[in-house]
């Protein structure tokens, strides 16, 4: 197959990004997700700022390119790494002492966890991506979170080697000085990027804050233009896309708000995106072809991962070469077909169709509501 150029996808408004998770570190799943979504035509794969995670994603992309019989760099998705300028829910882990659990506990935390990151021994750290759904459902309030900060300098060698194409900075209003401190570390190497993304949730001061961020970045290169593409990620309802169709409304509403501000750069939705996002965007004429200002792409995180979770669980269960998706043609074919249906919603790929809500989504949503 022939992959689209990520840069062209942004211009055309068909940009698709897979979010593996800024705190997600389960290497076999990351590798398999990278294979499936690369073969499905994803433009970007976003991972944690961890060299082992980066390596797993790169390996998955290379395997996919080999399977697709292409080695052109323009044919592969861009690899993005996420950083934070302060405390952020995307950069946390759940934790608790399982010895304190009541003997008769029904363990609702295990059932609600979308990443299968909780077992009788506690939280499986590499699988947890910080969604927080286990926190309110613990009957005795044992579960807490541990915040973490990504270390920018740790990824510089991979950036210098050309292995990282993009960086995403997670920030929020009120963090301007924190953002400036992080930017001062990144600025000397940022010219090596193809794309810089800014991810921010909504607030009443959002647009003014994003303008201040743009001014900070632009001042580094003034009077020259930015050496990379700038992308605004509108984080509508973080890490909730697999809960139910309605979560996408927050993502679209925030996307419209940022679009109306006419900020320099591209606008991409995230946070609550799922099978309902693209149909709703088309209904509101927020995707090409349209005479209106439109969004340029959509990022899918928890929803995209949950779509493939049963296949990846089956892969883990196989004792004959577990973890190597490419060595199991039946699972590879199924994973790519599912991923292609989601990617195809945005790109209008041949034979793509409406994606159904993941099994168990309604049950998990009901559990959260309780």
Overall mean pLDDT: 91
Q: What is the global morphology?
A: globular
First CA to last CA: what distance?
46 Å
Unreliable stretches, pLDDT < 50, 5 or more residues? 360-370
Portion of residues within helices: 25-40%
Q: What's the story with the biggest beta sheet? A: 8 strands, parallel, barrel
List SSEs in N-to-C order. Answer: HEHEHEEHEEEHEHEHEHEHEHHHH
What is the strand arrangement across the widest sheet? Answer: 1-2-3-8-9-10-11-12
Beta-strand fraction estimate: 15-25%
Radius of gyration from CA coordinates: 20 Å
Helix and strand composition category: alpha/beta
Q: Please give the number of β-strands.
A: 12
Counted by DSSP, the helix tally is 13
List the helices and strands and how they pair.
Blueprint: H1 6-12, E1 15-19, H2 27-40, E2 44-48, H3 51-68, E3 78-84, E4 92-95, H4 108-112, E5 118-119, E6 122-123, E7 144-147, H5 156-160, E8 166-170, H6 176-186, E9 195-200, H7 206-221, E10 229-235, H8 248-260, E11 266-270, H9 277-283, E12 297-300, H10 302-307, H11 309-317, H12 329-347, H13 361-369
Helix pairs in contact: 2-3, 2-12, 6-7
Write a compact overview of the structure shown.
With 370 residues, the chain is an alpha/beta fold. It has helices at 6-12, 27-40, 51-68, 108-112, 156-160, 176-186, 206-221, 248-260, 277-283, 302-307, 309-317, 329-347, 361-369, and strands spanning 15-19, 44-48, 78-84, 92-95, 118-119, 122-123, 144-147, 166-170, 195-200, 229-235, 266-270, 297-300. It has 13 helices and twelve strands.
């Amino acid at each position: 197959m022939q992959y689209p150029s990520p840069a062209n996808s942004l211009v055309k408004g068909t940009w698709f990004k897979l979010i593996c998770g800024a705190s997600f570190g389960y290497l076999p799943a990351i590798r398999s997700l990278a294979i499936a979504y690369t073969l499905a035509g994803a433009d970007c794969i976003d991972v944690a700022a961890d060299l082992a995670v980066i390596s797993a994603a790169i390996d998955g992309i290379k395997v996919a390119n080999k399977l697709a019989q292409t080695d052109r760099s323009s044919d592969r998705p861009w690899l993005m790494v996420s950083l934070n300028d302060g405390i952020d829910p995307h950069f946390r882990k759940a934790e608790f002492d399982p010895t304190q659990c009541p003997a008769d506990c029904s363990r609702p935390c295990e059932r609600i966890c979308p990443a299968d990151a909780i077992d009788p021994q506690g939280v499986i750290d590499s699988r947890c991506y910080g969604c927080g759904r286990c926190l309110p459902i613990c009957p005795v309030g044992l579960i807490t979170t541990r915040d973490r900060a990504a270390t920018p300098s740790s990824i510089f060698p991979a950036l210098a080697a050309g292995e990282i194409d993009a960086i995403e900075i997670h920030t929020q209003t009120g963090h301007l000085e924190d953002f400036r401190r992080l930017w001062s570390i990144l600025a000397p190497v940022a010219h090596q990027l193809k794309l810089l993304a800014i991810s921010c949730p909504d607030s009443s001061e959002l647009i003014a804050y994003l303008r201040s961020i743009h001014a900070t970045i632009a001042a580094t290169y003034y009077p020259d233009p930015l050496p990379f593409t700038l992308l605004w990620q509108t984080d509508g309802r973080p890490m909730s896309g697999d809960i139910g169709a309605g979560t996408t409304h927050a993502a679209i509403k925030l996307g419209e708000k940022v679009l109306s501000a006419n900020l320099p750069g591209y606008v991409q939705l995230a946070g609550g995106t799922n099978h309902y996002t693209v149909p709703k965007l088309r209904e509101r004429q927020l995707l090409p072809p349209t005479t209106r200002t439109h969004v340029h792409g959509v990022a899918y995180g928890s929803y995209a991962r949950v779509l493939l979770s049963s296949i990846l669980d089956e892969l883990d269960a196989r004792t004959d070469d577990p973890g190597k998706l490419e060595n199991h043609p039946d699972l590879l074919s199924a994973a790519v077909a599912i991923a292609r249906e989601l990617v195809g919603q945005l790109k209008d790929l041949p034979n793509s169709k409406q994606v159904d809500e993941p099994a168990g989504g309604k049950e998990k949503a009901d559990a959260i509501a309780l």
